[in-house]
Design a protein that fits this description.
The complex is a heterodimer of chains A (about 280) and B (about 250). In chain A, about 75% of the residues lie in helices and about 5% in strands. Chain A is mainly alpha-helical and about 280 residues long. In chain A, β1 and β2 form a beta hairpin. Chain B has about 250 residues and is α/β, with parallel strands linked by helices. Helix content of chain B is about 35%, strand content about 25%. The chains are: A mainly alpha (about 280), B alpha/beta (about 250).
């Protein structure tokens, strides 16, 4: 009698485990890729009726993919830079929101609310048209290309959202931690940097990553103000291929696919972190 | 004024301390004095202002009127250096309030290093000795979440002691503990008292108060109803309210 048989005959009740609630609809990246691929292929049927001299949509995408992916890299660059800028400014603004000095807290509250509630595109237009295309510092002229200005434009709403994340996280720490620090003679600044913020990082990570995914998806707005990112390039490729209507879906489908493959894992990871940190 | 204090004068002196939260007067003229090395217990029903009183002693809350002096330093002085005052006064809370992102050893070391700016190696040696003293040798690298309530509370005591305070305040430190871990915390406090530390305890542990205190104050509704040596207070209370309270809890 082998082990498997014995195990079968003397069936034991396995320990009861609560399955974690599955609230998210799970589409694995491979199946999403297949979905997008199908969409592209479906559009190819339209091409089948046209003349053989033209390239198939798939060939068009392959032909232009280095350029399109270069554009996508630009989107990622803009998103990363605006996240870095916005996070640095946002942590400062968030700390100012928590300041005991009333006028400072009030002013930063106003700034936060203003930039959180303004449409991103409007902010982008403001930065694009209000910031000069070059600045002269100590007789050196530094050019400010469009994409730098766009980065600043995205950093503004990021700053306001990060400020709110910081404020919420610090407020969520029980006030007894402040009292304990106070009774040990820590100054308010030491309490903030040594005791509050380190405890907040875990709590801040999921909402912060959420902001990042939002910024990444919003970077295509930069195409409206003429930055050569992926969407701009997609439109140009479409025009270069003669604006054939059957290329529309495959080309933009490719852009969708790229963004999905980049943002979806971030969201999955965020959800996982959220679940892990909920249990304290 | 601070310089005029000598160790033979009361180390803590409260005179007619009043404290209101809005229209609610919580402390209605409390006067008490504690001598160096003395252990006093404040007992009384919930909501009688016991915790508020010791939080006022530590300047965690401002008082409405009256005077509190710690080693001759007036706590109500608007120019008071609160940080200097709190270096003399250690406080242990009901909910331990350890810093959850730091290990037991780091919890004990943080304040001496960052507040007193003492040498790290020396602080670490002292912190390890303190953890051994509260019987937590071997738990230095545990995080608060990995320790039992009683262990956490002993880390909290060690954390306060690391600042080398002159006075220790204990705010119902066993109230949140499981019965089986209460004893280990009380043993730690008793050893501290025997070493000559000035202690002010707010407690519901009547037997412990009787055993360890030099002087017991019974408070009810914001006033000190009666006070005296534990043997007198616990066996021959004069006031009816004290008698009723003791008959309920003993």
């Amino acid at each position: 009698m082998n082990d498997a048989e014995r195990g079968h005959r003397l069936a034991v009740l396995l320990p009861y485990r609560l399955a974690p609630p599955r609230m998210t609809v799970r589409i694995s990246p491979p199946s999403a890729a297949i979905l997008c691929f199908c969409a592209i292929m479906a559009a190819s049927t339209a091409w089948a009726q046209s003349g053989p001299a033209m390239l198939s949509p798939l060939q068009v995408i392959l032909k232009w993919s280095p350029l399109l992916l270069w554009g996508f890299g630009f989107n990622i660059l803009i998103s990363l830079l605006s996240m870095v800028l916005g996070t640095i400014a946002g942590v400062g603004l968030g700390l100012a929101l928590l300041s005991e000095f009333r006028p400072l807290a009030a002013a930063s509250w106003l700034i936060t609310q203003f930039f959180r509630n303004a449409p991103w595109l409007v902010l982008l237009f403001f930065v694009m048209f209000l910031v000069p295309f070059q600045v002269t510092l100590f007789k050196t002229t530094i050019p400010l290309p469009d994409w730098i200005k766009a980065t600043v434009g995205f950093a503004l709403p990021v700053m306001a959202n990060v400020a709110e994340v910081v404020r919420g996280a610090v407020r969520s720490i029980p006030s007894t931690q402040w009292e304990a620090a106070e009774s040990l003679s820590f100054t308010p600044r030491q309490t903030m940097w040594l005791i509050m913020l380190p405890q907040c990082i875990k709590r801040m990570l999921p909402p912060w990553m959420n902001v990042y995914a939002l910024v990444t998806m919003s970077t295509v707005l930069a195409s409206i103000v003429g930055v050569s990112e992926m969407l701009t390039l997609t439109a140009q490729v479409h025009a270069a291929e003669g604006g054939r209507p059957e290329l529309f879906a495959p080309l933009y489908g490719f852009a969708l696919l790229c963004f999905f493959l980049y943002c979806y894992p971030i969201n999955l990871w965020t959800a996982r972190l959220e679940r892990r940190y909920r249990v304290r | 004024m601070a310089t005029s204090w000598t160790p033979d004068q009361p180390i803590v002196q409260c005179v007619d301390v009043r404290k209101s939260f809005g229209a609610l007067e919580v402390l209605k003229g409390i006067s008490l004095s504690v001598r160096k090395g003395e252990v006093i217990c404040i007992i009384g029903p919930s909501g009688s202002g016991k915790s508020t009183l010791i939080r006022c002693i530590n300047a965690l809350q401002p008082i409405s009127s009256g005077s509190i002096q710690i080693e001759g330093i007036e706590v109500t002085d608007p120019r008071l250096d609160k940080l200097a005052l709190r270096r003399k006064v250690g406080m242990v809370f009901q909910q331990y309030n350890l810093f959850p992102h730091k290990t037991a050893l780091q919890n004990v070391m943080m304040a001496p290093i960052h507040v007193l700016r003492q040498n790290r190696a020396e602080v670490e040696a002292r912190a390890r000795a303190l953890l051994a003293k509260v019987r937590l040798a071997g738990k230095e690298d545990s995080y608060p979440g990995e320790l039992s309530g009683g262990q956490q509370q002993r880390v909290a005591i060690a954390r306060s002691l690391a600042m080398r305070p002159d006075i220790m305040l204990f705010d119902e430190v066993t109230a949140a503990l499981d019965p089986e871990t209460v004893k280990e915390v009380l043993v730690t406090i008793r050893e501290l008292a025997e070493d000559g530390m000035t202690c002010i305890l707010v407690t519901h542990e009547m037997n412990f108060a009787r055993e360890v205190a030099d002087h017991v104050y019974f408070t009810d509704r914001g006033v000190i109803v009666e006070h005296g040596p534990p043997d007198t207070l616990f066996t021959a209370a004069k006031d009816q309210r004290t008698q009723r309270f003791l008959s309920q809890v003993l």
